[in-house]
Amino acid sequence: MLLSLADYAADAAYLLDPDVAAFVESGAGGSRAVRRNLEAFQRHVLIPRRFVDVSRISTETTVLGAVVSSPVLIAPTGLQQLAHPDGEVATARAAARAGTVAPAAVLATHPLERIVEAAAGAPVWFQLYDYGRAHTEGLLERAEAAGCAAVCVTIDVPRRARMREHDRRNGFRPSSRVQLAHFPDGAPEVRPVLRATLEWICATTSLPVVVKGVLRADDAATAVEAGASGVVVSNHGGRESGSAPAAVDVLPEVVDAIGARAEVYLDGGVRTGDDVAKALALGARAVMIGRPTWWGLAVAGEDGVADVLSILREELVETLAQLGCPDVRALDRGYVRNEGAR
Fold this sequence. Notes:
Layout: H1 5-15, H2 18-25, H3 32-43, E1 44-46, E2 61-63, E3 66-68, E4 72-74, H4 87-98, E5 102-105, H5 112-119, E6 124-128, H6 133-146, E7 150-154, H7 165-170, H8 195-204, E8 209-214, H9 217-225, E9 230-234, H10 247-258, E10 263-267, H11 273-281, E11 286-289, H12 291-323, E12 336-338
Parallel strand pairs: 4-11, 5-6, 6-7, 7-8, 8-9, 9-10, 10-11
Antiparallel strand pairs: 1-12, 2-3
């Protein structure tokens, strides 16, 4: 019986090929930032209010104007056929069943159009890097034509990095296992996203732009000034730098820097409904999950991802009841305290 995301993680570790499991779970620099994301949530505690009627609990909110059943979105991750043959298509279907955002990564193993079709009307965010104007403009046009709801520009990969240490030790190259749907001949070189690049993307597409990979207040402000409608506070799940701070630790300063000018989301280390509540109390509009999606895929495909989302929503309902907060949109900093703060 799978009752928690930890149960899914354990089963996925058993079912996945060892080198794929290592690819999913590990991060850069000895996975220090991966652990930091998890530990940071443990330093935060929730402070309940009493004398509150919690006979009815609402987890519904909006992201970029779209109604979602809970503030748990799926982070855009590519290469999902490494976990299950249906890959991103299964994830999109699960997102639609759960009433949340379905992601489509530029490094997906199924084409964008098929992912949008599988989402069956659920909002699809198309994630991409900067591959130079010609490639990027073509991808933006494709996202608009497919009916995507937003573009998610990832900015924390400034260049093509060498393989992570664990993958080098295993001799593991994802591209040798699966084919990239959008780049059958291999992905072009990644370029750093500069402010001018982001301004051009925002001016070129008619879709709202979300910027993923922000860890500083000044970078968040720059993204909004360049035209972004939202930012994702994220250290890429600890996969790009072992020295990056935990996303939840810098979330409040990013929220304060942006104010009401754009929406703020949190990605990194979310494993329980308590974690979701903590992030929202600190100012996030919603959270994203990455590795848990892979665990669900590996265990049971579409049904596994749907169950992961269901578990988090059920846990969030229980957390809100315990907090004396009947509406997820009412969470604020009065409900959370960082015990590690000095």
